[in-house]
Amino acid sequence: MIGLVTELITAVSSNNGPSQHRRHEERRIKDRKAAVDVCIIMAAFLICYLPEWTDFVLHYFFKIEFPSEATQTTRCIYYISSMTNPIIYSVRKREFRGGVKRTIKRIVGLCAI
């Protein structure tokens, strides 16, 4: 609340007008997008790693045995996590998509030789 009041006082007292407000708004939007990206990445990390680590902890510390299918499934989810970050970044970040496209074109160009 105090931060909001301070921002309002600063905005009113400055004579820079709309351009400063627009820059502040653009920065706020970028910060919000970054926060959403971090939340998505953390959720993907937890979804992928939590089953494997739960299986590991319960098996080694408490000697609880799970069916082999369950262990194999958690291990597959664990390995799939390696693919999640590039997918998330390519969906959420335009610059990353461009870099991936350029890299694939270079690889295809080298393979064509």
TrEMBL record:
<keyword id="KW-0325">Glycoprotein</keyword>
<keyword id="KW-0807">Transducer</keyword>
<keyword id="KW-1003">Cell membrane</keyword>
<dbReference type="GO" id="GO:0004930">
    <property type="term" value="F:G protein-coupled receptor activity"/>
</dbReference>
<dbReference type="InterPro" id="IPR000276">
    <property type="entry name" value="GPCR_Rhodpsn"/>
</dbReference>
<feature type="domain" description="G-protein coupled receptors family 1 profile">
    <location>
        <begin position="1"/>
        <end position="89"/>
    </location>
</feature>
<protein>
    <recommendedName>
        <fullName>G-protein coupled receptors family 1 profile domain-containing protein</fullName>
    </recommendedName>
</protein>
<keyword id="KW-0675">Receptor</keyword>
<keyword id="KW-0472">Membrane</keyword>
<keyword id="KW-1133">Transmembrane helix</keyword>
<keyword id="KW-0812">Transmembrane</keyword>
<dbReference type="InterPro" id="IPR017452">
    <property type="entry name" value="GPCR_Rhodpsn_7TM"/>
</dbReference>
<dbReference type="Pfam" id="PF00001">
    <property type="entry name" value="7tm_1"/>
</dbReference>
<dbReference type="GO" id="GO:0005886">
    <property type="term" value="C:plasma membrane"/>
</dbReference>
<keyword id="KW-0297">G-protein coupled receptor</keyword>
